[in-house]
Amino acid sequence: MSVPITTSEITCANGMPAFLAKPTSPGPHPVYIFMHERYGLVEHTRDLARRCAGDGFYVLAPDFFFRHPDKEKLNAGDSRYDMSDPESVELLKAAHATIAADKAADMGRLAVGGYCQTGRHPLLFAAEVPISAVVVWYGAAAKREWVTSPRQPGLLEEAVAKLTCPVFGSFGSDDHIISIDDVRHFRNVLEKHGKSYDLHIYKGAPHGWLNDTMPGRYRKEQAEAGWAAQQKFLTRVLSPDYRNDVVEWTFDCAFSQDYDFSKNVRLE
Q: In which residue ranges of the chain is pLDDT below 50?
């Protein structure tokens, strides 16, 4: 059952705007820093932040693309902001510092989640700043994530090797960007370095299937199942009884027998 929440628009010390949603009770509450999709801090992101706060979390959803010069084009998907890995860590540190002094936030129970374009960035942050959990939705696994570039100066696998927390991942079998083999590679890298994970591939889900503002992509059944799995994972790994010294691997996958990644298409 959802708990009463309060919301506000705040500004981090570095000038980054953010949406804050938290239970009205004093807490302290487990913390979830929410990294938005490629569209920036749109209403869909705020909706998910409110939903997560209703589940009992202190949620901060910053506008990580606030330096983009044309927010209208960005929010509509007609432009991009190609945030670099170092910039993402810088901004996450600013978000972290902004809420660290709030007594309602239990910084000892902190998760960071990335969605789509930002999927890789919680992994990079967790490699530098000890946190309790990483959440990835249909990101961080495509082949382009594992190579270096001017925006990605370090190898993602090197960041994975430094993790000290478990990873949750939610993917769709019909994603046109991330293949099932890509998710298996992500899984194998986590296993190679002895990291705990809880990964899910949902049958029939395309890229962006959690976003209910895009009817072509949204898949209600899979979205509800994925959200429930995420919240179950967070409740478990953020509890005082969680044993972080034990490695746990969960891989839950379903796809059609006639699966062919080359036939997956971009949907709106």
A: none
